[in-house]
Design goal:
The protein is of the alpha/beta class and about 290 residues long. It has a single domain, classed as NAD(P)-binding Rossmann-like Domain (Rossmann fold), CATH 3.40.50. About 40% of the residues lie in helices and about 15% in strands.
Length: about 290
């Protein structure tokens, strides 16, 4: 029975993994958050790994406050780079597989076709740069590293766009949302199931190293933040009036990518991960809320 450590266990993805754990009795799970394991503390990590026979580590811990990162470089770097590096080092010592979550923000290019894993990166802003630096450090330190880049994550847990729209849609008569940023929402529960499927395949593989590398996961389909908000209101039967605006009309400290569709052919082929449409996933999430 392989032991899986999940860091950042109180976040959106970590919470989904906690809820799903009972459905995967073939695995032994350890859930840790900053109050039980500070990933920025190298000695604490090595002591934790020494105590537990960890074979897989899913790193859900991250500094994801995109705008706040612009004025909190030290904290963002500590969590997204140093923390990832320490976890990768501990995994490397024990030949454990390190599954590290990253972001569509690393691309930020002007292309208008879905990004493939080998496409050039061009991170803009502190958050994007630290996430890219973190995944690169992990891959350099531990050859058994799997990087999963995802986008527009939401869940029934934590704070996210879906829950914000539900709250504002109930409080206000009208709302403005940007329409010129294109991508795909990712339901954290679907991402969690995909990660566990990846571990199942890696566990049974002759060569774990051959399956490592960079992969993409989001739900299927294409939408904008405006259309995503419209779908949330429609599914939740909220009558709030939506107005589509351009990104320039809603300036933020960190620059958002205008196009961030992720090509998911690799993860579907290599790991046979099933990916459902974002609208179906949204309905599932709303039913849980």
């Amino acid at each position: 029975m392989p032991t899986i450590l999940v860091t950042g266990s109180k976040g959106q993805l970590g919470s989904e993994l906690q809820e799903l754990a009972a459905q995967y009795p073939q695995h032994h799970f350890l859930f840790a958050d900053v109050d039980t394991l500070d990933i920025c503390d190298e000695q604490a990590i090595h002591a934790f790994f020494k105590k537990h026979q960890i074979e897989y580590c899913i790193n859900c811990a991250a500094y994801t406050a995109v705008d706040k990162a612009e004025s909190n470089l030290k904290t963002a770097f500590a969590v997204n780079v140093t923390g990832a590096k320490y976890l990768a080092m501990a995994c490397a010592v024990r030949k454990a597989v390190f599954l590290h979550l990253s972001t569509d923000y690393v691309y930020h290019n002007s292309q208008n076709t879905p990004f493939k894993e080998e496409d050039p990166v061009n991170p803009q802003g502190v958050y994007a740069r630290t996430k890219l630096d973190g995944e690169r450090a992990a891959q350099q330190i531990n050859p058994l590293t799997v990087v999963v880049r995802t986008s527009w994550v939401y869940s029934s847990f934590g704070n996210n766009f879906v829950k914000t729209m539900l709250r504002l849609g109930a409080e206000r008569d009208a709302l403005s949302v940007v329409y010129d940023q294109i991508g795909t929402p990712t339901y954290a529960r679907d991402l969690a199931i995909g990660l566990l499927q990846m571990i199942n395949v890696i566990q049974g593989a002759e060569s774990k190293k051959a399956l490592c590398g960079i992969y993409h996961f989001s739900n299927e389909g294409v939408t904008s933040w405006y259309d995503f908000a419209h779908a949330i209101f429609e599914e939740a039967k909220l009558s709030c009036q939506l107005t589509a605006i351009e990104s320039k009309d809603y300036p933020t400290p960190a620059k958002r990518p205008h196009f961030s569709l992720l090509h998911k052919g690799k993860i579907k082929t290599v790991f046979e991960v099933k990916v459902r449409n974002w609208r179906e996933a949204l309905r599932d999430c709303l039913s849980r809320l």
